[in-house]
Every structure is written in structure tokens, then in C-alpha cells.
Amino acid sequence: MRDALAEALAGIVQRPGRSILTTVGTVLGVGAFVAVLGLTSTATGQIGKSFSLLQDTTVTVQDLGAGTEAGPGTSGRGAMDFPADSDARLAALNGVTDAGVWWQVPLRNPRISARPDVTAAAANGAGADSASGSGSGSGIGLFAASPGALRAMQPTLGTGALYNGFHQRRGERVALLGAPAARLLGITRTDDQPAVFVDGVAYTVVGIVSDVQRLPQTLLGMIIPSSTALRAYGPPADAAAQALIRTRPGAGPLIARQAPLALRPDEPRLLKAVPPPDPHALRDQVSTDMSGLFLILAAICLAVGTLGIANTTLVAVLERTSEIGLRRALGARPRHITAQFLTESTALGALGGLIGAASGAATVVGTAMARDWTAVLQPYTVLAAPLIGMATGFAAGLYPALRAARIEPLDALRR
Q1: Which helix (H) or strand (E) element contains residue 126?
Q2: Which of 30, 36, 186, 272 is the most buried (most CB within 10 A)?
Q3: Are residues 39 and 72 part of one domain?
Q4: Do residues 229 and 370 share a domain?
């Protein structure tokens, strides 16, 4: 064994350029293997962290009974089953941080513009809906939200302020704009109290929202107080209203059970609460999908490395035919020749596995530092990498070694 190792080391050192090129494939394959598993674990941990911060603290309540009854002055639209004091009722539940009701205002193609529309104002009401076309506010949605729902969205203000309970109680015509909607309307500041016109009706813009944690569709739209929307446009029609509840971590399932009864103790069946999904199921699914995809890429890299070692070792056998013949003439048996070339290829594979493991671990740590994540790298992944490299080198050198062992000494010496 000592002689075989010495001969293998001599063969590797005597051809450093070829040895380096031979190990490149194994380095890439093993490095990809370690990096893929490490980055998958790291990204999955980051997904789990984001999930626990957002999804695990979000509960929605759907209005199942919307449209079953109509109230006075609703123009035939279904009444809303959420009470007027929904924000206060939900906030009283232990574990609720912010909560409120929101919906999309039931207007057909509302004309939203930064300038007054004389035609729409003259149409006044239902005629405005049909007369309005795709004006400068085309594509901008109109949403109604109570102050509690607004806070539950966790908006990030670009400028201005959020409307509050004062505006809600008085039904003030104030509005918030998402940053994309504000750009479409050409509004960049709120200190001069700009106005936005909805079918000719003016709303004062009190703030511009640059981002929201929940309900991202509101960014390309205009948000007004729910009391103002009820007074001007009636209850929701096409899409039912929903309650958005932001809870403390771990309180979501309990709040989902309590919310319908707190909102409608007389008819809780009219409301359906949707609790947060199971975070473990999502994390496991994401981890499985990512691991399966990238491990295929790592396997391809290892296959390329195996072929590279096999090709280089086979070329080395052909070039060293005279050496093999001399060894056979001096008494070496076929198994000695096989052991020599297998030892060389296995050593090259192990060297590539060590370098690949170090490169993969460095890739995981560097990526985690660049993204401010916590690097997650299982020890068995790094420890198994050199063994994978050795197995790759052994498998790659098996055929060339057997071919070298079958060379006849006389034929080899004639060359």
C-alpha cells in the first residue's frame, strides 16, 4: 500500500498541470453539491423567518353573507355584514395588534385624475360611471379601508401621513396614494395638499405610501376611509368586504376562532375567518423543491468531473504504455498496475473533493454575509464531500486502470 501511494503521488506531482485540470471537474461538482445544500438550508431558514414575521401574524375574515340583504339607500347593492365598530371589536381581542375592514369600492371604471373633470362632474352619479373613459387615472384602483385595516397593512410612508379615526368618524374626503399611482397622477408631495378627483369629486391627498407588508394591490390605487366610501358609493358589490387582522406571533389560530363571534355574536356564520397556513409545511415544500432542482445541477457537475478524470486517466494510460510494459517486465502483476492507476485517480478525486468542499462552504458564507442572512451549513454535508470526491475518482479511474492492466509487456515494450 505504501509503494502504491508513493507511486500515485509521484505520478500526480510529475504532471502538475494535468493533475490540476483533472481535478477541476471534481472541484466544480463537489463545490456545487456543498453550496447547493448550504444555500438551500440558508434560504429555507430565511423563508421561515419571513413567514413567521408576516404570514403567521395575518388573519383574514371573509363576508359570506354579503348580498343577501339590502339596506336603505344602497341602490340594490347587498348590505355589508361587518358592524360599524369592527375595528374596536377586533382590537379588543387579546393578541390582536391592528385590525379593520377593507374592500374595493364598487365603481365601474372610475375616472381618477389629478385635475377636475368637468364632464364627469356634470354627469353626477350613475351617469359618470358610464360616461367615464380611460382618463389620466386609467388603471388606478379605488379601495376603502378603515384606519385599523390601514395600520394592519403596515404601510411605509414616502411622504405625508395616514388618515386616522378623526377622518373616519367625520367621513372626510381624504385619500392615500400608492407610490406607483402617485407617479401616474404626477403627485410627488403632500405639503401643498394636492387633490385627486374621482369622477369629478375632490379628495385631499394626505400621504403617499411607498410600500405595504399586506395587500400589495393597494399600491397601484387610491385608499379612502371606509365611512367615506359607504356614504358616497354604498357597500361593496362585486367583491365582498374583508377584515384584515394583524396578530402577535402565535395568536393567529386563536384569533381566527374568536373573530367571527366578536364581530357578529348574533350571526357568526355570516363570517368566515382564514387562519395562517402551517409554516412547517411551506418551509418543507420550499426546501424539497429547491434541493431537488439544485442537486440535479450538482449531479451534472459531478458527471462532467467524472468524465474529465476518466478521459485524462485514459490518456495517461496510453502515454505511459512503455512504463507499464517495463513494470510488467520487472515482475508487476496486472493487479499492481490496476491499483496504481486507481490510487492516482482516487487521490485526484479526494483532492478535488477537499478543494470543492472548501469552495462550497466559502460560497455559502459569502452569500449569507452579502444578503445579511444567517448561514446554515450541515456538518455532514462538508464531511461527506471528500468521500464523494474519492468515489468519483475511483469510478472514473476504474476503466482506464483495467485497460492498463490488460496491456501485454511485449506489446508495450515494442512501442
Answers
A1: helix 126-131
A2: 30
A3: no
A4: no
User: Are 193 and 293 contained in the same domain?
Assistant: no
Number of H helices, E strands in the chain: 15, 11
Rounded Cα distance, 29 and 357, in Å:
10
One domain for residues 219 and 326: no
Which residues, at least 6 apart from 214, have a Cβ–Cβ distance to it below 8 Å? 54, 58, 152, 153, 154, 244, 246
Q: Which has the minimum average pLDDT: 75-84, 164-173, 188-197?
A: 75-84
pLDDT higher than 70, residue 294: no
Cα 320 from Cα 88, distance rounded (Å):
87
Q: Tell me if 391 is assigned to some domain.
A: yes
Per-residue model confidence as pLDDT tens digits over 245-292: 999 988 888 999 999 999 999 989 999 998 876 656 656 665 666 666
Angle between helices 16-53 and 334-370 (to 10 degrees): 40
Residue 32 in domain: yes
Q: How many residues does the chain have?
A: 415
Q: Is residue 401 part of a domain?
A: yes
Sequence letter at residue 388? I
Domain that includes residue 364, residue range: 2-51+280-414
Whether residues 120 and 230 fall in one domain: yes
- Within 8 A by CB and 6+ apart from 149, the residues are 87, 98, 99, 100, 101, 102, 226, 243, 244
Q: CA nearest 101: which of 67, 53, 61, 131?
A: 61
